[in-house]
Design brief:
309 residues; alpha/beta; D-Maltodextrin-Binding Protein, domain 2; three-stranded parallel beta sheet; 13 helices
Length: 309
């Protein structure tokens, strides 16, 4: 006897039919299955009819205590349940357990953010997620493309609002303060009061250069009142500037959060004699990571540590 097997095309199968089959098979009732699925009984019966036509088997027969499964349906029941469970596992977001995770996060940071924002984040991250690794990568001209490609999870950002597909959350606002070493000629004055504009401009300054930023907010504010400072040294690093200021007559104007860290090391901090605009700092990420549980957790931790109340 020659048996011809008909090849069935399952590439377009409606998975809802398997959901209906699974509920009927478990409950042995079209009525109960309809209630569990929040469908009408005719809709469930119609789905069952479609599956019967596709499989070429009645699947369920009426019995004394309800429906009974055909041999084909009985053989299908557990595999179909496994298929639906696997689909659910694939589609459901994977829970993120920071205490157990070995996730590697990549965070874009400027030189400023490395000194002003990163330390409290690390202090909170270590006990909460001891096996997580955080790579702080320099923020630069390629960072937006890296966010889009998933090479960065998120980044500190001081450049103002960004259009879709980027997302941002403001963390805090900062403004420059004056900073001198403890042996600077105006250090004693600065401990009592803020130096006036002439005193502030009487000494050379050190400035941190920032990629793609041509103007400094302090220079902008000075130009608005017709004055300028003499820049004696520029470097791309705030920490380098702190080191080279020691035992010199240089003045530095870092953002307040950095100045406060330096003041703990013995530098003298003072308010500037001119009004300088505040700058908003935010956390920036791409829409692609919006709903990722691990990224959500990291963003919330950063916001909790840095957002000003």
């Amino acid at each position: 006897m020659i048996v011809i097997m008909q090849k069935m095309n399952f590439s377009r199968i409606d998975l809802n039919l398997l959901v209906v089959f699974n509920e009927i098979g478990r409950s042995r009732s079209v009525t109960v299955a309809a209630e569990r699925l929040s469908l009408s009984q005719p809709a469930v019966s119609h789905a069952l009819a479609r599956l019967r036509d596709m499989i070429g088997d009645p699947l369920f027969l009426r019995g004394r205590g309800g429906l009974i499964l055909t041999a084909r349906a009985q053989a299908m029941l557990d595999p179909v349940g496994d298929i639906l469970a696997n689909i659910g596992a694939v589609l459901a977001p994977s829970p993120f357990d920071p205490a157990r995770s070995t996730r590697v996060f990549r965070l874009g940071v400027s030189d400023y953010a490395a000194g002003a924002a990163l330390p409290p984040v690390i202090r909170a991250l270590r006990p909460a997620a001891p096996n997580v690794t955080l790579h702080a990568l320099p923020f630069g001209s390629e960072s937006l493309a890296q966010l889009e490609a998933g090479e960065l999870d998120c980044s500190f950002w001081g450049g103002g609002p960004m259009p879709d597909p980027f997302r941002s959350r403001e963390l805090f606002r900062d403004h420059p303060l004056g900073l001198v070493c403890a042996t600077h000629p105006i250090a004693k004055t600065a401990k009592r009061r803020a130096p006036d504009l002439d005193e502030f401009l009487a000494y050379p300054h050190v400035k941190t250069t920032i990629e793609n930023v041509a103007t400094d907010p302090v220079d902008i504010a000075l130009a608005a009142v017709g004055r300028a400072r003499r820049i004696a040294v520029t470097t791309p690093s705030h920490s380098a500037n702190f080191a080279l200021m020691t035992r010199t007559d240089l003045i530095m104007c870092p953002a307040a959060r950095l100045a406060q860290e330096a003041a703990r090391l013995g530098f003298v901090m003072f308010e500037l004699p001119i009004q300088v605009a505040f700058n908003a700092y935010a956390l920036l990420w791409h829409q692609r990571s919006e709903t990722d549980p691990a990224n959500q957790w990291l963003r919330e931790l950063i916001a909790t540590e840095l957002t000003e109340v």
